[in-house]
Known about the structure:
The radius of gyration is 16 Å and the shape is globular. Helix 1 (18-31) packs antiparallel against helix 4. It has 2 domains: 5-16 and 86-212, HAD superfamily/HAD-like (Rossmann fold, 3-Layer(aba) Sandwich), CATH 3.40.50; 18-84, Orthogonal Bundle (DNA polymerase, domain 1). It has 9 helices and 6 strands, in the order βαααααβαβαβαββα. The mean pLDDT is 95. It has 214 residues and is an alpha/beta fold. The protein has helices spanning 18-31, 38-45, 50-61, 69-84, 91-101, 113-123, 148-157, 171-179, 210-213; strands at 5-8, 105-109, 134-136, 164-168, 183-187, 201-203. One of its GO terms (molecular function) is hydrolase activity. Belongs to the HAD-like hydrolase superfamily. CbbY/CbbZ/Gph/YieH family.
Amino acid sequence: MRYDLVIFDNDGVLVDSEPLSNRHLAAYLTELGHPTTYEESIRDYMGSAMHRIHDLVLERTGQRLPADFDDVFHARVFAAFERELKPVAGVVGVLERLRAEGVPCCVASSGSHERIRVGHRVTGLDQWFDEGRIFSSQDVGRGKPAPDLFLHAAREMGVAPERCIVVEDSPLGVQAAVAAGMDVVGFTAMTPAEKLAGARKLFGDMGELAPLLV
């Protein structure tokens, strides 16, 4: 089957941001009186929109995070991006292969448009994705695991969901893609394979990805 659109998650798939982001998230939540380890941050928040962090903290503690939580967190993460962020190893080769094969691709991320733009600028991936091919949970009412973001991306790109394949590294993202009626391949670099069980195929190295897409 040749797909008409490849939809990439961003964090952990295109840019190697999950270790940086979750290290800072765990530290900030702990600072605010909600002790969180790096491992717990990965487990609970990886692949989720910001509203999920607020919702889970409120559900678990009965306390709301500060009104400026998102702004402070993003400022810390963006500063870390400027110093340390790299593209995921091998992903540029995948993008080159897709371009050579004439397969369109786009980004559908739980992160904000600003977060995506900063990450792509720092890593040089901005040459691969213009604004018309970047979609954020900010664009829809519900983030992953709801299918809304992936359906929105497919609609904007003019492709039927069943002709799309999604590249994801989080359980929430895999759930969202399956709910959208799309094929999904799961990247196991940071996520145990069993947590991505809904994916059609699993891969642990970007060198394995291109043959799954074209």
